[in-house]
Amino acid sequence: MTAPPVLTGPSGRPIDRDSGKTLRLPIIHQRLVETYGDGVIELNWTTPLELLIATVLSAQSTDVMVNKITASLFQKYHEPEDYLAVPQEELEQDIKSSGFYRQKAKSIRGLCAGILERFDGDVPQTIAELITLPGVARKTANVVQSGAFPEAMATDPDAGIAVDTHVIRLSKRLGYTRHSDAVKIEQDLKRMYPRDQWSNASLVTILHGRRCCDALKPACYRCPVETLCPSSLAAGRTDKARQARGMGE
Ligand code: SF4
Predict the structure, then answer these.
(1) N or C: which end of the chain has fewer CB within 10 A?
(2) Which residue intervals of 77-137 are DSSP H helices?
(3) CA of residue 74 to ligand 1 center, whole Å
(4) 190 catalytic residue (yes or no)
(5) Parts of the chain belonging to CATH 1.10.340.30
(6) pLDDT tens for each residue of the chain, 249 residues long
(7) CA–CA gap between residue 20 and residue 31 (Å, rounded)
(8) Nearest ligand 1 atom to alpha carbon 232
(9) What is d(CA 139, CA 163) in angstroms, rounded to the nearest whole number?
């Protein structure tokens, strides 16, 4: 088997897991793109409203479960008015298996009312507007904008990177941030990734978190970025995500 080429930085020194994050990040990102492609949102949706509702439902749930729910939900509800035309209890039953269904039903009805009252029935395209809707924080707003409104994302001064639990864990393990707060981590990542990679950076990182870099049992032995990871258990390193929670070995 041919040995992988030795990567070197500007000084000619090899780039490895102990190199600075700005040297490692572009190579790590490239390898994740090679592994997971351009990255896709694994939620099923066809309209901005569907993406918004599916993203709200995905909190504390899995995309597989949300896709099961929305397969029938989106047959029954098409416009914001539809979610307000039924009693809240009926909507709760329709989304029950996503968990936290009472709060989610309340958020969905609230955001539909907001879209009708303040945005003429259309999902708004800017982050500043999206986060005014009930139940919509920056993570959800970033997912919706990057998925449904890429042109708006390109010019929105508030655009960013969707930071979910996988992105938080990976950002710590890879040594990209010392923060635990999602908004601060997003600021760190925005400074490191070129703007045209913000959307894809989140998507491939989430896929890597789901398929390889598990919260409890990361599969470091088969990880495509193992040689660049300062938390590699295969290299006998301490997991920086666990360390940050005071659980280091
Ligand atoms: S080497 Fe292990 S901890 Fe590091 S990114 Fe890969 S799976 Fe995660």
Answers:
(1) N
(2) 80-84, 88-94, 101-118, 127-130
(3) 37
(4) no
(5) 48-155
(6) 445 566 777 777 889 999 999 999 999 999 999 999 877 788 999 999 999 999 999 998 999 999 999 999 999 999 999 999 999 999 999 999 999 999 999 999 999 999 999 999 999 999 999 999 998 999 999 999 999 999 999 999 999 999 999 999 999 999 999 999 999 999 999 999 999 999 999 999 999 999 999 999 999 999 999 999 999 999 999 998 888 776 543
(7) 17
(8) 1
(9) 6
Residues facing 14 on adjacent strands: 8
Name the residue of 206, 212, 217 whose CB sits within 8 Å of the most ligand 1 atoms, as the mutation to test its pocket.
212
In terms of phi and psi (left: phi > 0; alpha: psi -120 to 50; beta: otherwise), the region of 237 is beta
Nearest atom in ligand 1 to 218's CA: 7
**Residue 8 phi, psi (nearest 5):** -125, 150
Active site residue 104: no
Residues of the chain with CATH 1.10.1670.10: 21-39+162-244
The fold of 48-155 is Endonuclease III; domain 1 (1.10.340)
Q: Catalytic pick from 104, 139, 172, 240?
A: 139
Ligand 1 centroid – CA 174 distance (Å): 8
